Amino acid sequence: MVRHIVLFKLKDPSQKNLSQTKQILLSMQGKVPQLRGIEVGCDFLHSERSYDIGLTVTVDNQKALDDYQNDSYHCDVVKKHMHAVRESSIAIDYII
After folding, report:
1. Strand order of the sheet with strand 53-59?
2. Could you tell me the sign of the dihedral formed by the alpha carbons of 87, 84, 61, 37, in that order?
3. Segments making up each domain of the chain, as ranges
4. What's this model's pTM, rounded to 2 decimal places?
5. How far is CA 6 from the centre of its chain?
6. pLDDT of 67
7. 24 φ/ψ angles, rounded to the nearest 5 degrees
8. Residue 70 neighbours by CB distance under 10 Å
9. The domain over range 2-95 is classified in CATH as 3.30.70.100
10. 81-84, long-range: CB within 8 Å, 24+ apart, which pairs?
């Protein structure tokens, strides 16, 4: 299995924007068939090195990760939103 983690700094980290973004990320559950698990959390420490929101997804293997990255819902809804609201992002993918 593969774990895919992405951390996002948002242009506007207001509670309203964080809540909307969290719901959009979570909306992949049931719509993106490659997902075996999904978690989304918002940072509460707000330290200098903190990112605003984190996404963790689990997929079966690297092919499933590639398919997830190209899934139409992921691309047309989620990535479109994230590209509009993020200031920056960082990711890691590893085998579990």
Report:
1. 37-42, 53-59, 2-10, 86-95
2. positive
3. 2-95
4. 0.95
5. 5
6. 98
7. -65, -45
8. 10
9. yes
10. 81/21, 81/24, 82/8, 82/21, 82/24, 82/25
Q: Which residue has the tokens 């997902």?
A: 35
Q: Which residues contact 9 (CB under 8 A, 6 or more apart)?
A: 51, 52, 86, 87, 88, 89
Q: What are the pLDDT digits (tens) for 30-74?
A: 999 999 999 999 999 999 999 999 999 999 999 999 999 999 999
Q: Is the dihedral of CA 77, 83, 88, 89 positive or negative?
A: positive
Q: Provide the terminal-to-terminal Cα distance of the chain, rounded to the nearest Å.
A: 5
- Helix locations, the chain, DSSP H: 15-26, 62-70, 72-73, 80-85
Token pair in block for residue 51? 């990112």
